[in-house]
Amino acid sequence: MKVSDFIAKFIENKGISSVFELSGGMITHILDSINQKTDISIITMHHEQGAAFAAEGFARISGLPGVALATSGPGATNLLTGIGSCYFDSTPAIFITGQVNRHELKREKEIRQLGFQETDIVSMAKPITKYCIQISNPNDIPRIFEKAYQLALEGRPGPVLIDIPMDVQRTQIETFFYKNEQKNQEEIDLAVLQKLLFDIKQAKRPLILAGRGIKASNSKDLFDKFLKQTKIPVITTLLGLDLIGFDNLQRVGFIGSYGNRWANIAFGECDLLIVLGSRLDIRQTGADTQFIENRKIYHIDCEKDEINNRVKGCVGIVTDLKSFFSSFENIYSKFIFDLPNDWVKHIIDLKLTWPDTKELVSEGINPNVFMHALSSQSQKAKAYLADVGSHQMWAAQSLEITEGQHFLTSGGMGAMGFSLPASIGASIALNKQPVVVLVGDGSIQINIQELQTIVRNKLPIKIIVLNNNSLGMIRQFQDSYFDSRYQSTLWGYNAPDFAKVSIAYGIEAITISEPNEINDAIDWLWNNENTLSPQLLQVMINPHTNTYPKIAFGRPITEMEPFAKPIEMEGT
Fold first, then answer.
1. Is the pTM of this model over 0.85?
2. What is the pLDDT of residues 107-120, one digit of tens each?
3. Going by C-beta distance under 8 Å and a sequence separation of 6 or more, which residues neighbour residue 468?
4. Among 334, 353, 372, which residue terminates a domain?
């Protein structure tokens, strides 16, 4: 069998129904094989970064590795941001790059390049992949692809990259498929689980901090069961927003640098914290972690070095979440948990005292009010995809995400330009059901070319551009630390009329700028004629609308702007 034919059949045999790519000379063999030998949909993007983000969106919805392909040289290097996004946010993905023929590789020669577009993508991608290899022996292909597939999914999921010279792709090999080898999990110390059970029963103010690791480990059903049994209130990270429905009585809210003020206060006041699927990074805890460390903390993580990394004094349980939930269920299923009513009432009172829609004093459309209105009328949406910037935090603070809806954003990489291409992968993984993109005027311009991909593939993607004609989050930073000198955020920056741009691509679009226009605009998105069509709604926001609340940098997470002031300049 021809190597490229084997690769095509391997992807199909794993149940991966779509791949994302931008064609180039060094991947033509593989693309032709996928087209001729399989039923896989080939989604052609307009930039390799878009292909990488689309593969990430597909993977986060499907649970299977997303696949993106690119040619050698600039095609391969354009994948790197998307590879990093998958790596930092624990998304399984297989990136396949074409390479020049083996006889054109410079190897150990002291020259920069031998073959045209020859680029050492393996050295560049190694720090942000779980496995990265250039294939020199065609007969290694079956073993390498199976190993790469397994590594992408096991433990903490992430991306792999396989670089394949063009002459290898057209070689004939004997065909065989390796079987998955299941790794045995280490047993969890029963005494630690019994101590956790005791501490839950003794706690007066317990909380669960839920992060993306729950979905990354395919443990959502087990997590739901754990919540139902223990009745513990839940705070979520940015990437964990879709783990508990907005109307679930155990949901507290979103925590972190721009978290709901009431949720951050509850975070600061709890006497027991159970961390599930979260790394406790600086965006979740703030720079000052001492206030968090004066309570009992159980941190469950599959990577031991994440435990007691930034936040000290945690009781660590090093295991995957599936093993944790299954082992703990054998103990807790025999007990009845009673949550202290005064703790529940206190959390409700905090929500009433600090409503998210009152944090801003803004002219025109209040973005937090808009998010509530949008999501309360968007039950047909199967997912929300937020880009990076002020709109991302307004979405996290105020979207009413219901059970079964997904929320995707770029967390660890924080990559502007993520949401539009990722929505393509997400919608395709959802069998072309509607999804909503929330994007700023700065972010959409990074991968705006993918509007044409949406049109060509007839995807029902609803694009909401929150246009404040600035890079608002950085502009707010400049107000705080640079005496309102707006270089590159207001000065030397502008944005087009995105409704006109959208119409040029063949997507219907309207613009609103007043609060009384919100409901009619949302109705326009979801009326029966438009539900399965792409649309763009441009929402004009005052350029000086801030994102509040925000941690006052250098202070505990419970002390937030605008009422508290930072005591040092933000370094991250």
1. yes
2. 989 889 888 888 99
3. 390, 440, 441, 540, 541, 542, 543, 545
4. 353
